[in-house]
Amino acid sequence: STSRDRTTNGFRGLLMPRAPRPAGAVLVLALAASAPAMAQGFRPQAGVAWGRTVPVGDYHAAANGEGFDGAAQGMLLVAIARPGSAFGLRLDGVYTRTAANDSLDAHLTTALGQATTEQLKLLGANLDVTYALRSGRGPRPYLLGGLGLYHVTIAVTSGDSATNDAATKAAWNLGAGLGYGLGPVTPFLEVRYVGMAALSGFPRTTFVPVGLGIRCGGP
Question: CA-based, 20 to 30 A from 178: which of 33, 90, 163, 216?
Answer without folding.
Answer: 33
